[in-house]
Each structure stands twice: as C-alpha cells, then as structure tokens.
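Form P-L/3: holo structure prediction, ligand zinc ion.
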Amino acid sequence: MSQSGGALPDFRRYRRLRQSEGLRRFARETILHPGDFVYPLFVTFGRGVRREVSSMPDVFQLSIDQLEREANVLLDLGIGSVILFGIPEVKDLEASDAYDPDGIVQQAIRELKRIAPNLVVIGDVCCCEYTSHGHCGILDGEIVDNDRTLALLARTAVAQAHAGVDIVAPSDMMDGRVRVIREALDGAGYVNLPILSYSAKYASGFYGPFRDAADSTPEFGDRRSHQMDPANVREAYLEIAADIDEGADAIIVKPAMPYLDVIAGARERFDVPIAAYNVSGEYAMVRAAGRAGWIDERRVTMELLTSIRRAGASQIITYHAKSAAGWLREEYGATLRVRSSPVVGVSQGTPAGGVQSD
Ligand SMILES: [Zn+2]
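OUTPUT (holo model):
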C-alpha cells in the first residue's frame, strides 16, 4: 500500500485488526463460553408448577418434577452448572426447611444428581428463603444474630452435602461462616466438597426481582447490617481474603455490572476462581428495555456478559445463560465446524450467524 503523497504518518493503525469479522475474532481478547455460565434455579413445592416470575421474563419457579426437562435444556446448550434456591411450603423462625433432610433444596439436589449426574449442582446456603420473617438468620430484636446463625448455616451445608450437592455457596454474609461451614463439612466426612463463598455481596437495590422469585423479601428492615455498603471496595478485599483464609475455594462478587471494579481488583489480588452474580435487577432492566424496543437486547446482553468476563470473572451466574448460550452457538458454532473439518465448497470468510458488522 502506498501513501498518496507526503511523509508517512507517525501513528499506529489500530484499525488494521478491525477490518473484517475474521480479523476481529483473531484479535479478540475475551470470548464467552456457555460452560462459564451458572444458571439459577428456583425450586418450589407442589407438582406440575412452572410459574413465571412477573419481574423476570422467562425465569420460572419450578417444582421438582419439572427439573428433568430444565436440566436437559441446559445440558443441550452446554451450560454445565446450576445454583439452587428453594421456596419451601412452610417457613418458620429457625429456617427449618433449609436443613431438613427432605427440605425443598435437598429434594432438588437428589433429583438433579439422579437425572443429570454431570451437571454441577451448587447449593445456595442462607436462611432468608426459609424464615417466616425473611431475614438471613436468627433474629435478636431486628438484627440478625451472627453467631447463632452460623450453626444453622453449617447444618444447611451438611444437609446439602448429604443430598449430593457438588458445591455449597454461602450467601448470608455472616462473619466467620466459611470457617464454621468448612469445619462442619470436614467433620461430616465431606473434606472434598468445595465452598464457593459470596464474599463481596453488596446491599443492593438490584435484588428486587429476585425477592419476588425466591419469595424472600424481609418483613421489615433491610440487609444493610450484614451485606456490604455499595461505596466500599477495599473492604471487599478484606472480606475475600478472610473467606479464602477460612477455607473458601472460590468466591463470588454480587451484583456484577455495578461492581466491575471490584471483580477486576479481586482478579489482580487473588488467585482463586472468581464468579460474578449478574443479578435479577440487572436482568430485568435489560429485558424491559429490550421489550420496549429501546435497546437491541441480544447485543446489549452479550456486551454486558463480555464486560463481566473481561473484568476478570471466570464464571458468570446469570439469568441470561440460556439465551446467551443459544446466541453463542449461532455466532461461533458454524465457524468452529468449518475450522475443524474443511469442506469443499464452504465459502471462507463469511461471518457465521449473520453477525452485524459495525
Ligand atoms: Zn439471605
């Protein structure tokens, strides 16, 4: 290529690697994979229940008998893990269903491990879905009593372990819970059961739709005495360091989009797997704006998920998992087949899936 007249310009041409979809893929730093997604499941009592959550389109409360169909859909899309939340028939002051051997989540774990042994089943460990007042543990007045709650969390983790869970994920934000859960699991013979700790869980306005889905809105007050202040990031690193020290094998930052700096900072500082929870309010905003025609939902969803991965999350817990996995298949599936088995007549250089060029 010759420059038309004058001296060669003294700048670098970054646009060279953006000239075609093939070149953009060649230079792409971050690629999502369905195996990175963790799909949240809300399991409820009864039979034949498939109840859509009003504030979360395409997200359903499912009864146990509906799990087989759901697991098959997820496995077919390449999604390798789920995280379970329970909606029990009876709630009480001690969150009994959370650690009842026949509690709703324990039933769901057994069913999923029966029908889909290779699906990684993660059990959320907290009390708020199981207490009559909707708080995360035993109350002392209007405040959750940290140390009395620890015993319930340990019992819940062991109950999930007995049911066959692959990973326990404490989400309560009580101090010291990873240590107590680790000791309880080890004492019960589950030395190899990993703990994925919600280490940096913020007191967020983005949880609203989840509380419809999991039926866990507190009767009074909020969770600010145990969840983190959204203004803080150094404190998140202290929480993460403490959880790793107590025995966490991997950690979660929650929510995701408003806390990408926390994910990126944690990635720099810690070498355990970091998951991000792309929460219900983040999902609801995108779905609502997409339905209204205000944004291109597919494009925005993939951009957001990519940003979470790029920030440093190795796993993304997301309600978008199924649609995103389908879009990834459309976008990369055809290309991967062409690359692995060159076929005469396949036109090279044609972007698969009609990718929009921009
Ligand atoms: Zn809770």
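COMMENT: Residues 334-358 have pLDDT under 50 and may be disordered.
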